[in-house]
Structure formats: structure tokens, C-alpha cells
């Protein structure tokens, strides 16, 4: 009720004619696309797609100093100039929806009107939905911020330290976004309760994407299509729970996750083309947690990986225990593959390879049982030799059988005096006796 009275008084004072005869400077409330309601919220809803809104800290069409919220929907372009919200002590919400082009200049959303050392002071909530963000400049978002949520948007450029020196931060959620260009150290040196990247597409995650970030509860990377994840992409400390799930990753470099955990780590249902040596080596456990609660578990469950070696699964054995409940090697089974992974699967790891004859994944120990060994390893050689021997025997039998048949049917040729040739199966010799002729008749 007091707020309503104060707002009415302010409106009345604002409407009084100036004592010096000058026309009062208009605020954003007087912009054609915007208005201010009785709760001192600045609401800009662009009915035409060509409308642009520029938010500035002073001068004509500035954001009014008593604004409690800034809501902008459906505009062609929105730009926050430097220090736009720095002195808006009543501000609690910044919401941008359906914007074609957003630029947040350096310190454009830097909000810290209160002491940084007090946890009791309020913060602001920043949400961006279904928009195209052309650039979030260096040091653009700073100060006391409770939540940063960017959803269903395209982010063209994230500059170094774009999100830095934040206090009181509870949640950072990046949901179903497409990132084009990300500079190093985009998120720099702050503490947050939950950091979640869910869905969307990222071409390259640079080194130190998260740099010196403390996550006190949940760190989650879920269902993201990542072409290349660099070494030291995540420099993170203190998460109680780490979930890396359902991601499609082209290349995961060694030490991509440099994370000091205070709880278990789950690496589940990911599909990775190239898992480099030492890709999981950066996971470790906080020394105090290790001394009081012991080693934490690193679970690898139902991941499909094309190119890797046993060295890709090297982990910090001094602070973690490794459990492999399912890992599909996206390569054809062979006894050589089995020998390469023997040391790991003999310690209880469930590792599968692709069995061409049956068209599905099969556990390596099962493959070894049915196909490998001194005799089984040469199984096909014995089959080929046996087939060749059988063919030779059949050929020899047929040869002699045909030869014998031809000899039975062989016929005798007789040449008679008249020059004719006869072929007979049998003949008789008739002996005739010749008598001498006499002259006596």
C-alpha cells in the first residue's frame, strides 16, 4: 500500500510544471512502444517488428529511476547502454522475449547498488527467451544477480568476462540455445548454486569457458550437441553433484573437465566420436571431503565411443573409484580389441564391441568366449582348409569315375579292304580253307 501511495506522489510530482519553465525530460515511459504501469514496471511491447528500443541511464527516454522491472517483447532491436541499470535500486527483473537483435554493452546489466558483502540484500533476475543475442560484451553482466536464464535463443558472440564478478547468484541455466562464437573466460570468478547447460548446439567450447567458478550444488551438462570440447573448458570447484548426460560430442580433449568435486560424478548416455587420452583425468575430489567421506565414485554408464584407447579412461585413483556399468566401443569386435581392453574388463568393467555377425553390441568377455583362443582364433582357416580338401576329393572321384565309364564305352575300329571303317563292339574271325584248283573238270 505504501508503494502505491509513493508511486502516486511521484507521478504527481513528475506531472507538475517545472519551476524554471522548461519542459521535463521524457523517460522510457513516454516512448511510443513502452509504458509504465502502477507497479513502476517498464513494459515495452512492439506491435511493429521494426521498432527499436535503446535503454540508457540518463538523458531523454532514460529508464526511470524507480523502475522495478523491465519487460520487452517482440522488438526488432534492443540495446543496453553502459550503466543502464546501475542505479536502479528498486529493479528486480529484466525480461527479454522474442527480440530479433540484442546487444548488451559493457556494464549494461551491471547492478550493484548495495554492499557486496551482505547476503541479505536482494538481487535481480535476468531472462532472455526466444531471441537472437548478437553480443554480450565483456563485463556486461556483473553485480548482485540472483538468476540468469537464457532459453531457446541464438547467441552470436560471448566476449571474455561477459559474466563476471557476480554475487548472490543462485542459478545459471542455458537451455536449448545455439552458440556461434564463444571467447575464453566467458564465465569468470563467481559462486553459484546450480549451473546447468541443457540442450542446444555449441560448435566449440573454448578453454576456460568456466574459469574459477565455484558451484556449490549441481553442475549439469545435458543433451548438448558439442562439436569440440577443449582442454580446461570447465575450471570448476565444489559441486556436490556432477551430471554429464545424453550429450553428442565430436571431440573431448584431455583434461576437458578440471573439476574439484565434493560428491559423485556421473558420465551417462553420451555419444562421443573422439575421446582423447586423459579426458577424465581432471576430475578430482576436495581434500576435506576426501579426508572425512573418503573416495567418491566416477560412474561411466552406457556411453558409446568411437575412437579411444584405455588411456582415455585414466582417472585420479587417489580420490575416485571408477565404475564402468556400460561402455560401447563403436568398433567391430576382434580378438586384438579384446587383448587391448583385457586389463579393464577383467576388473569388472562392462565393455561392449560391435558384433557384425549378429548386428548388435556384445560384451567383450562373451566375444572372447565364443571366438577367441588357440583354436577359435584360427577357426576360419580350418574351415577353408576342410572345404578345399573336400573339393579335391570330389574332383578326384569324379575324374576316375568318368575315366572308367569312357573305357567301358570304348569301341574297336576295323579297316576293310574296300577302305571303309567299321566300329564294332565284338567281332568273329571265320577261318576258311582254300582248295587248289585242278584242270580236270
UniProtKB/TrEMBL annotation:
UniProt entry keywords in alphabetical sequence: Membrane, Signal, Transmembrane, Transmembrane helix
Signal peptide feature range: 1-21
Protein's name according to its UniProt entry: Uncharacterized protein
Organism classification: Eukaryota, Metazoa, Ecdysozoa, Arthropoda, Hexapoda
Family matches, as Gene3D superfamilies: Ribonuclease Inhibitor
Transmembrane stretches, start-end: 379-402
Keyword Glycoprotein found: no
Originating species: Leptidea sinapis
Superkingdom to which the source organism belongs: Eukaryota
